[in-house]
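An example makes the point: we let one protein speak, the chain in one-letter code, the fold tokenised, and here it is:
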Amino acid sequence: MKIVIDDNIPYIKGRLEPVAETLYVDQFGFTPENVRDADAIVIRTRTRCDEALLGNSNVRLIATATIGMDQIDIPWCREHNISVNNAPGCNAPGVAQYVWSVLLREGFDPKLHTLGVVGRGNVGGIIADWGRLLGARVVVSDPPRQRAGIEDDYMPLDRLMAECDAVTLHTPLTRTGEDPTYHLVNAAMLSSMKPGALLVNAARGPVVDSAALLEELRTGRIRAVLDTWEGEPVIDRELLSLTDYGTFHIAGYSREGKQRATRMALEALERGLGITVDKSGLEGVYRAPRAISAEGILASYDPKDDSDALRAAPDQFDTLRRNYNYRPEYRPETDPAVTD
């Protein structure tokens, strides 16, 4: 059995070697030649999985140690009986830590302000839950959940954009279907935001029309924090200069999140290939807290250093990301400001 693995997936080396031939390659180093005789590949966000890569291969399973799957041609894989597995929710607490750290630093007052969460999946759900624990009014735009009858405080997206003091985006990137998200936040949506309102994008860059956002930021009427960008790793330097914080797609780069992602990828390999893998020492499932504190979140992570690093070297986006020192997540159980 052969498995080709992205060499920047942490905590994985040595775990598969007892049960398979392993080949580690750079995220851009997956080729039709080196996957031809592979049974499975383990990837991240930049490896495009489609007929061009896999058409002449034996691959029957893809495991991505990420939430997003827009790098994978899922219909083609389905037609060719290739199982596709992602890691939903793996980094959700880390993204929540990032988002709430920037919201609080940007002056969002949970006692006074309203937060709009666009996409209430694993990530958006934790952000919404933390907001309510902090005392904020949180409204949600998520048409699929609303159609499914899942209870929440829903608001149409155009109204949410116009009424909220801050809006944070947590949708997948889709271009087709009933609810496409490509350029979901367009010029009309941005122009409707309150003066001084804050937009946070830690989802996928193209969910926002970056040209329209740039026009708005040039006026200074609204503010933005961007962790994901159209065209990344090549990003618009003027847009970066006008963000309050601009980081290099690391909102979810917590140590525990990376461990969960690796665990979930290994579990997919176990299910799909009928193997047993050592998963000792890897973080388990996130448990929702009963209380959190703004002080604890602020103490757990400050995005300034990451933002400063990108501003200093915007052409090093992927290098900064690759060499990131995974931060510890916010842990309510060790927060001295939390009284449970």
